[in-house]
Design brief:
The complex is a heterodimer of chains A (259) and B (267).
Chain A lengths: L2 H4 L7 H8 L2 E4 L12 E8 L2 E8 L5 H6 L7 H16 L4 E7 L6 H5 L2 H12 L6 E10 H5 L6 E5 L3 E3 L3 H9 L5 H8 L3 H7 L4 E3 L9 H21 L3 H10 L4 E3 L2
Parallel strand pairs in A: 3-4, 4-5, 5-6, 5-7, 6-8
Antiparallel strand pairs in A: 1-2, 2-3
Chain B lengths: L1 H16 L10 H4 L11 H8 L6 E2 L4 E3 L8 H12 L5 E8 L2 E8 L10 H17 L3 E7 L7 H20 L4 E9 L1 H4 L8 E4 L10 H8 L10 H6 L5 E2 L2 H17 L5
Helix pairs in contact in B: 5-6
The chains are: A alpha/beta (259), B alpha/beta (267).
């Protein structure tokens, strides 16, 4: 994980990925309960010969847009919108593709009032039983439960310099050692890089960045597109997708057996 | 950032003064409760207050943490806490009877790394829900946790999905799951099984939330009211069914278990 690549100002955001990966996209808004969270974009798209549902976190390209999109940190209504679109995808037998790049679920007064915990929990429980394939691409930051709520998936792809962690290295260093400046050390201990996560079986494929995705976004997007098409093909040939997804998440964890 | 918060807080204000015909969600005396005066209970104490006499049979006691990331100081810490508390990790689970009704019970214990969820807690809860699904038993969980256990990194995050998946399986078998939120219920536990109960009970005045209070205060650069993220706050915003004082907990659970055993119609 190279921070100068991960946080490069020209690193593509979800709007770029949607433009580059899919043939066409129609955004759909709102959670039908409270509002429309601009930190999550969702809608219908075409990928090859398939109609798919695309959902992802949105950081915004420029400062003004980033502020409007809350820097990609969703509120509960964002997770509820994503669940609504996933249920809709299931009804119409459309595969779901999620694109994750978020510092995490937003931590704030209103997010607590509207049940940030409940919204994430609901997604985890519902996604595990969805009958359609779910493919996920981690393109930048994968911030804890806020990322997991879009990633209870059948196949998970991750850009080489992206990260996915239970806590931000800075947060970990402040809690454990009362010293946020030791974040790099915390990052190493937490094992949050694509290759670490591949070893744990948390992700399936690492997408090489060849020196940084910002240098040749089209090339990487073509690679992602190709992998997603293979993923859909794989899902189509998999019997008992829901059971396979259950077993995928069931096996996580390491412990010792004693008497 | 600050600008956003100002805006957000402005939007949140009308909530309190809204002209709606809704009756108040909580009685005034309940909202006056701010901080819990109840001492936190250990898992054995909680089980003896909840399960019928001599009915508890512990399951899955033989699994202990293995330090999967090789995290500095973690093995020493868990081994010291096993010694000190007599617990294997932050949870005790097993079979019991409550008011004569057979059930499965899981109790988190905040003395063990603040009840944080790593592989052991995740595995024991997953097995509990799978057992409940296989044997058609109701489940009562007492939550008390600071959230995911960061010393187990991504594997602790995966426990949230794993346990939630097992909750779904138990749910599909039509079995009752009662979550009881005790002090504190926060982070990754709130964002997974704690919020997935068919019925969610809370002890009065305990801390319930997703984000840490200090994290929010740090971003806002302001102190939050004592009533923020309490049981009463959860009830008021619709995320708990009832606040149940400790002395009424067993009777309430008994009633819930009995009524669910009766089913919705006479056979």
């Amino acid at each position: 994980m190279n921070k100068s690549i991960l946080y490069h100002k020209d690193r593509p955001v979800i709007d770029d990925w949607i433009d580059m990966i899919f043939e066409d996209f129609l955004e759909l808004h709102g959670d039908r309960f409270y509002g429309d969270d601009p930190a999550i974009i969702g809608g219908l798209a075409r990928l090859g010969n398939s109609a798919v549902t695309v959902i992802g976190t949105a950081k915004g390209r420029k400062t003004k847009e980033s502020i409007a999109r809350n820097f990609g940190m969703p509120h509960p209504e964002g997770y509820r919108k994503s669940l609504r679109l996933m249920k809709q995808a299931e009804k119409f037998s459309r595969p779901i593709i999620t694109i994750v790049d978020t510092p995490g679920a937003f931590c704030g007064i209103e997010a607590e009032e509207r049940g940030q915990g409940e919204a994430i929990a609901r997604n985890l429980m519902e996604m595990i039983t969805l009958k359609v394939p779910i493919l996920t691409v981690f393109t930048g930051e994968g911030g804890s439960g806020g990322a997991l709520a879009l990633a209870v998936s059948d196949r998970i792809y991750m850009l080489q310099e992206a990260m996915y962690s239970v806590i931000s290295p800075r947060g970990c260093a402040s809690i454990l050692w009362k010293d946020p400046s030791r974040e790099d050390e915390a990052a190493r201990q937490l094992k949050i890089t694509a290759s670490d996560l591949k070893q744990f079986g948390v992700i399936d494929e690492i997408i090489p960045e060849h020196g940084g995705v910002h240098l040749h976004p089209q090339k990487i997007a073509a690679d992602i597109r190709h992998r997603l098409l293979s993923g859909l093909n794989w899902a189509e040939q998999t019997d008992d997708l829901v059971g396979t997804r259950y077993r995928r998440f069931r096996r996580f964890g390491e412990w010792e057996e004693v008497n | 950032m600050l600008h956003m918060f100002k805006k957000a807080r402005y939007i949140s204000v009308p909530h309190e003064n809204r002209e709606t015909p809704y009756p108040p969600a909580v009685e005034p005396k309940a909202t006056a409760v701010t901080k819990s005066s109840l001492p936190r209970l250990s898992a054995p104490e909680r089980i003896s207050m909840t399960a019928d006499c001599d009915s508890f049979l512990e399951t899955d006691r033989g699994i202990i943490s293995s330090n999967p990331l090789g995290f500095e100081g973690y093995s020493e810490k868990t081994s010291m806490l096993r010694e000190k508390t007599g617990l294997q990790d932050g949870v005790v689970s097993g079979y019991c009877r409550i008011g004569g009704v057979p059930a499965l019970i899981g109790v988190m214990d905040s003395r063990f790394m603040m009840g944080s969820m790593g592989s052991v807690v995740g595995e024991r809860f997953t097995r509990l829900f799978e057992r409940g699904a296989d044997e058609l038993l109701p489940i009562v969980l007492f939550c008390a946790s600071g959230g995911a256990r960061m010393q187990e990194g991504i594997l602790s995050l995966m426990q949230m999905a794993k346990v939630s998946a097992a909750v779904a399986r138990h749910h599909e078998e039509g079995q009752l799951y009662v979550a009881v939120l005790t002090d504190p219920t926060t982070g990754g536990v709130t964002a997974s099984f704690a919020m997935l109960g068919d019925i969610i009970l809370a002890e009065p005045g305990v801390t319930i939330g997703f984000a840490g209070r200090r994290v929010i205060e740090g971003t806002l650069k302001a102190r939050l009211p004592e009533t923020f993220q309490t049981s009463e706050f959860s009830l008021e915003h619709g995320f708990a069914d009832r606040i149940v004082p400790r002395h009424e907990m067993k009777d309430t659970l008994k009633k819930l278990l009995c009524w669910h055993r009766l089913g919705g119609h006479e056979v």
